[in-house]
């Protein structure tokens, strides 16, 4: 499958040991494909067993979360924290709360996080966690009891210099607040153990906006290299959660017109440009479905079923919902309708067939681990502010975020060019992220 015997050997061993973890294997395979020329040029990688080590999490904590619902009934969920790689800093990565969560999904996310965090240039290792708990339809009290029970176990494994979790799907400001409160009660410590905190207790300005803004800053660099910009472009954004809302705001500020957005039930099309404030009200305040957009903007259209969003003609597509939400056929539809650039706001939203279709059609493609790194980068800035016991202004954080996204784009572009893969940002992101972690692992030796 790979040209390198070393890559084949490590991948086949991993696939045999983890045959029941398809998302994790998909993520590893994509990184390995990019590493072919690096493995050929740098024998020290095999000599130090880097690939064997990097695909194996340093630690997997799997635990039970039991809690009592409003009817007084005991509920049980399964949860994980996967501490994947600490070569360049404390483990860092979000907590996902969604019924689809399983060990494979958390491993894929944790593996991706290693390289993403490395790309930010900040000292953060890779980790991820979550639970198959479904926050939808739960009362605030049920969410609070779940989060407290979850943290009762998690607190033993994390700490501001060990592992610093954050939000992800289903874990927003409300959940982070309950988690932080419980950590503080258990440890009697007020530290920056979580990021994505509220502003009144150590959160960073611009963290909420950071992933969505960062995707647009990355896209801006891609467009710049195509001698164009957001101005006058039609933009389609899937999802309507944290990443999608602020991608919508920034794309609009930069001159684009966002014409479609979705949730897991369906999508809306507003040819006049979606008002992000309406989506924010629907999703963050009312926690309602996206079709209620029509109550605010009756001229918009709602279509049942989320996947149809990719049939909306556009210049720029930003998948910001979830993994494998855009397949090869949907990519071909986007291409036939004239899409020019795609950047991933969600983690691994495009299937390998979709990525291949974009690349062979000459559509500029920005992969998740680079394009959506703005969230974790700003979490890194939140950690710095917590350590200094200072808080920076919105503009200061936004300016740093912008600078980080420009640098990530440059690193991806330069790494691809160094290995004769000009313009291939997937390879560039994987290589640039990998090389730093690899070097740190070599310096730190192997424990005998
Ligand atoms: P949220 O929970 O805030 O929002 C997720 C959105 O995606 C919701 O609108 C949800 O709709 C929608 N969605 C979920 N599943 C599907 C599906 N199968 N098809 C269409 N829409 C779907 O999560 P985030 O915005 O935080 O995260 C989105 C993605 O971005 C994830 O892949 C996450 O890992 C990634 N990411 C997030 C970062 C962050 O800072 N938040 C940082 C980096 C990456 P519904 O309400 O119907 O479920």
Overview of this protein structure:
There is one protein chain. The chain has about 450 residues and is an alpha/beta fold. About 50% of the residues lie in helices and about 15% in strands. The chain has helices at about 5-15, 20-40, 45, 50-55, 105-120, 140-155, 175-185, 205-225, 240-255, 275-285, 295, 330-335, 350-360, 370, 375-390, 395-420, 425-445, and strands at about 60-70, 75-85, 90-95, 125-130, 165, 235-240, 255-260, 265-270, 300-305, 315-320, 340-345, 365. The strands form two sheets. A seven-stranded mixed sheet has the order 9-8-7-6-10-11-12, with helices on both faces. A five-stranded mixed sheet has the order 1-2-4-3-5. Strand 1 and strand 2 (about 75-85) form a beta hairpin. NADPH dihydro-nicotinamide-adenine-dinucleotide phosphate binds near residues 168 and 375. NADPH dihydro-nicotinamide-adenine-dinucleotide phosphate binds next to helix 9.
What structural category characterises the helix and strand content? alpha/beta
Strand content: 15-25%
Q: Mean pLDDT, nearest integer?
A: 97
How many separate helices?
A: 17
Compressed to H and E, one letter per element, the order equals: HHHHEEEHEHEHHEHEEHHEEHEHEHHHH
Range of helix content: 40-55%
Number of strands: 12
The neighbouring-strand order within the major sheet is: 9-8-7-6-10-11-12
Ligands: NADPH dihydro-nicotinamide-adenine-dinucleotide phosphate
User: Describe the biggest sheet?
Assistant: 7 strands, mixed
Which stretches are poorly predicted, pLDDT < 50 over at least 5 residues? none
Q: Specify the overall morphology.
A: globular
The whole-angstrom Rg is: 21 Å
First and last CA, distance: 32 Å
